[in-house]
Write a structure and sequence with these properties.
Elements (H helix, E strand, L loop, with lengths): L3 H23 L6 E3 L2 E3 L2 H11 L2 H19 L4 H21 L5 H27 L3 H26 L4 H8 L3
Antiparallel strand pairs: 1-2
């Protein structure tokens, strides 16, 4: 019979895999909101929620690798930008949620998702300017990128704290 550590690792892998699949699905244009010049993708919600409940390595897998695969399947041009940006975003959120201000996890997670939103906006703005060789395109998309980051941060926090995903993760012993 597997020991407690192996069971915890298996639970984390399964939850991370499920959340990564959700991130990939939410990267689809079918589940996005059309805006001028593109779409708002809802995968930031999954990335923020997953990063709060998972450790940094698993958060990177869900955020960075999940967004990379989603882009690779649906719109490959920015897939490396997504890997770096969402990967860094997920790790920062997870570090804040798990290692800083342990007695005030919700507050620390709030700081993490705020910094994650900044990383998201800056990363995609720089990435767009680099990929499309035009800073004007990046500036034009910035208001929508800010909206996407804020919606992801706020709804991710709501899913984890008021709606109880954090309590479920604690009960399942994956945090």
């Amino acid at each position: 019979m597997a020991n407690t550590s192996s069971r915890k690792t298996l639970k984390r892998i399964c939850i991370a895999g499920l959340l990564m699949a959700m991130n990939i699905i939410m990267s689809s244009s079918l589940l996005s909101v059309p805006v001028p010049g593109g779409h708002l993708y809802m995968n930031d919600i999954v990335i923020c929620a997953a990063s709060i409940i998972l450790t940094p390595a698993y958060a990177f897998a869900v955020g960075g690798i999940g967004a990379f695969v989603g882009d690779m399947l649906f719109y490959p041009t920015p897939m490396f930008v997504s890997l770096v940006t969402h990967g860094l975003q997920a790790v920062v959120i997870s570090v804040f949620a798990h290692y800083l201000l342990k007695k005030h996890k919700a507050f620390s997670s709030g700081i993490g998702v705020t910094l994650g939103a900044v990383i998201n906006v800056v990363g995609y703005s720089v990435g767009r300017a680099w990929i499309y060789s035009t800073p004007e395109y990046a500036v034009a998309k910035m208001p929508f990128q800010i909206l996407q980051a804020v919606v992801g941060a706020v709804l991710g926090m709501i899913i984890v704290y008021p709606l109880g995903l954090g309590k479920l993760a604690k009960k399942m012993q994956i945090d």
